[in-house]
Design brief:
Elements lengths: L2 H22 L4 E2 L21 E6 L7 E4 L5 E4 L3 E4 L5 H12 L8 E7 L4 E6 L5 E4 L6 H7 L13 E7 L5 E7 L2 H5 L15 E4 L1
Parallel strand pairs: 1-10, 7-11
Antiparallel strand pairs: 2-3, 2-6, 4-5, 7-8, 9-10, 9-11
Length: about 210
């Protein structure tokens, strides 16, 4: 395949993927965004599916275990069975495990360490150099995320970048929202609050 033919094929596939993706999220709502505080990294990491945890029960090797968080967000431990881990910090999960074990032993001391972070990943679609799933190991801003995705292609519309994010409303219902990214303002040093921290599962869309 010639270089020109390859580029045409690549553009066709990228366009097809983007059209299919956007057709699936046509119902998402545009966020009237107040960016204040969104560029500040969270105080602590929240556990998610595929993360590897080391649960240690002091002076009890049989109950100490290395576990992988399942897709449903739970882990399985001796005596107590399944317990929810996703969405919790390691410190909070330690307390939950200790509370559950307290039914079987006196004043258990539990620690939880995150051995591997596998749940923090984002996606990039459209006119970026490397579309697809992007694993992250530290809190990442949207501009950094674009860089990890290979930057923009020649045809990218830098004025229309946005992020799709799943959020819960006050009723606990999950919906998808569209967060605009004023990329040109950010790189010119304007509206730096809009260079917000990405959350696991965010999708960067570059038309």
């Amino acid at each position: 395949m010639t270089g020109q033919a390859w580029e045409l094929a690549r553009n066709f596939v990228t366009a097809a993927v983007l059209i299919a993706f956007l057709s699936g999220v046509g119902g998402c709502s545009q966020q009237n965004v107040q960016y204040q505080g969104m560029s500040v990294p969270p105080a602590e990491f929240l556990i998610g599916p595929e993360d590897v945890l080391v649960v240690t029960v002091w002076r009890n090797q049989e109950l100490s275990k290395e576990v992988i968080v399942r897709p449903d967000g739970k882990i399985s431990l001796p005596l107590i069975g399944d317990i929810m881990a996703a969405g919790l910090s390691a410190q909070v999960l330690s307390k939950h495990v200790a509370d559950a074990l307290a039914e079987f032993m006196s004043t258990p001391t539990v620690s939880v360490q995150v051995k591997e972070i596998n749940s923090y990943h984002i996606f990039a679609v459209g006119e970026v150099g490397k579309p697809g799933k992007i694993p992250l190991k530290s809190f990442t801003s949207v501009v950094q995320g674009i860089s990890y995705a290979g930057g923009f292609t020649t045809f990218a519309s830098r004025n229309n970048v946005h992020v799709l994010r799943m959020v819960k409303n006050s009723q606990g219902e999950t919906k998808q929202v569209m967060i605009p990214v004023p990329y040109l303002d950010i790189i010119q040093g304007k509206n730096l609050e809009a260079n917000f921290i990405l959350k696991a599962g965010d999708v960067i869309v570059v038309p």
